[in-house]
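Q: How do we represent a protein-ligand complex in a form that can be generated token by token?
A: Start from the inputs.
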Amino acid sequence: MKRILITGAAGFLGSHLCDRFVNEGFHVIGMDNLITGDLKNIEHLFKLEQFEFYNHDVTKFVHVPGELDYILHFASPASPIDYLKIPIQTLKVGALGTHNLLGLAKEKGARVLIASTSEIYGDPLVHPQTEEYYGNVNTIGPRGVYDEAKRFQESITMAYHRFHGVETRIVRIFNTYGPRMRLNDGRVIPAFMGQALRGEDLTVFGDGSQTRSFCYVDDEIEGIYRLLMSDYSDPVNIGNPHEITIKDFAEEIINLTGTDQKVIYKDLPQDDPMQRQPDISKAKEILGWEPKVGRAEGMKRTFEYFKTLSKEELERTEHRDFSDINKK
Ligand code: UDP
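Then emit the structure tokens for the protein with uridine-5'-diphosphate bound:
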């Protein structure tokens, strides 16, 4: 049985990856310090012998007994509201955490896949974003702690690959959504869905002309799986190129949820990227991958998930206004 370590295992993507690798017949070792993750996302796996869980902070030395074939490093706060709240941990997990996991990969002879992000392109001046684009990042802005940690993460990963011969993979993840997103993580999809379910107006930041391209989680996981199994060590964009303005997206959510909420406008957070769309030519060519789940279907499935959350949970997680945090 192949053995895989997945960091950030209790998070949104981490937990879906645990499911995928359990289903593929791997022995899965999940690791998380539960700063932003939630054990609820993986509690169904605890009864399985092929799954084990370590409550550990990967910025501290990482020890895993026995052999390891693969490592997936998905531990990191990943929403603007989180990395504004815990900026130092965000920097540390991308930098020190990645260093520890690369060291572990070298020691164990494991192949390691690092979760990078479209944020390394910053507020992009090239559209759509190809992997060759170097990005436009404000190092000292509120998003800098995440963007620069992830840029450093890519550099140290390539250094371990070139200098130590470690087998490395780098996925640049674009906006991804689906069940198990945290209702109060501040991201636009849980924010809008939570607002619709609580009967509140939908808060669009700025004039809503900024764009994003949303990828359904099953597609994202398939892309990551194929990249890990490939022999390609340069970064690969995995995301859905279907782009929409945030204003039109708010209208779509209102139609989907069948509510009569209005759209209200708030300040645009500092350094909020104006446009984002992945160029996925590389993923198509190298991995034979492209997304299959359209936004209408994906949003329907995601809304079904949010509807299962209890009323108390909805009330406990009232919308946190991230445009205000930016001003403090
Ligand atoms: N956004 C919004 N209202 C919200 C939350 C987010 O209009 O309640 C906007 C946000 O300003 C950004 C887009 O939605 O332009 C996507 O935000 P998210 O935090 O989901 O991801 P990211 O900015 O990292 O792509």
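DSSP finds eleven helices and 13 strands in the chain. The chain has a mean pLDDT of 95.
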